[in-house]
Write a structure and sequence with these properties.
Pfam families: DUF3159 (PF11361). This is DUF3159 domain-containing protein. Keywords: Membrane, Transmembrane, Transmembrane helix. The structure is a single chain. Helices cover about 75% and strands about 0% of the residues. It has two domains: about 140 residues; about 70 residues. The protein is mostly helical and about 240 residues long. Helix 3 runs parallel beside helix 5.
């Protein structure tokens, strides 16, 4: 199903940085179980991409714990301590079971950085600042990549499918990857557009709730759409 460039011009001599970046993206997608060559069902692929039950719990519980404790007690140090402590327990459990701790460690670093900022400023809404920044950076990066003709989804899929950057010479693929990348940029932009006003208003309860609602519930359908679209694209492409 994978395609190789028919000549040297198809890759348009991408820089070594682009090749390294694309290979890294493709490797990350394959590790997450998003290889379009895989014959598994779409629900299975999406569930694997989210990390299964464990990944969902590790992703959601620290934020949920902070939201619930702070809403009930308005005690910022207590809420942050329980949130960080939850992430620490997940990381310890990964190490104890000799499982790859990367996901839990990433979550722990994010939770700890957010908690440190909120403790420093004394404002509960600042616990959400790193997430707002990440959404802004992701939205900007994805949008720019699509507009300049190097759609990030295309870069990742190209290396995942073994064709490098040859997809850029195929108008159909470029169009599909453009709109998929725009869709992902739209997801992160929507999160920022909805949550930033709540942050500025200091509405911690609504901000925390919408962060959870706009997290995995929106991520999963977009993963499924991307997966199905890419599989259909390559299945219908002549060998």
């Amino acid at each position: 199903m994978s395609q190789q460039p028919s000549d040297g011009r198809e890759s348009e001599r991408p820089s070594s940085a682009a090749e390294i970046f694309g290979a890294a993206l493709g490797g990350a997608a394959r590790k997450a179980g998003l290889d379009p060559n895989d014959a598994r069902s779409t629900p299975h692929v999406v569930w694997h991409a989210m990390g299964g039950w464990r990944g969902v719990v590790e992703s959601v519980l620290p934020s949920l714990a902070f939201l619930l404790v702070y809403t009930v007690s308005t005690n910022l140090p207590l809420a942050l301590g329980i949130s960080v402590g939850t992430a620490v327990l997940f990381t310890i459990a990964r190490f104890a079971q000799r499982q790859p701790p990367s996901a839990a460690l990433g979550g722990l670093v994010a939770v700890a950085a957010a908690a440190a900022l909120a403790l420093f400023t004394g404002r509960a809404q600042d616990n959400f600042v790193p997430g707002l920044i990440i959404n802004g950076l992701y939205a900007s990066g994805l949008l720019i990549s699509a507009l300049v003709g190097w759609a990030i989804i295309g870069v990742a899929v190209g290396f995942l499918m073994g064709e490098g950057t040859a997809w850029r010479t195929d108008r159909r693929k470029r169009r599909v990857f453009f709109w998929l990348t725009i869709a992902w940029a739209g997801l992160f932009a929507a999160r920022l557009a909805v949550q930033l006003p709540l942050y500025l208003a200091g509405n911690v309860a609504a901000l925390g709730t919408l962060k959870l609602v706009m997290g995995l519930p929106l991520f999963a359908p977009l993963v499924a759409l991307t997966w199905l679209t890419v599989r259909a694209l390559y299945r219908s492409t002549p060998e």
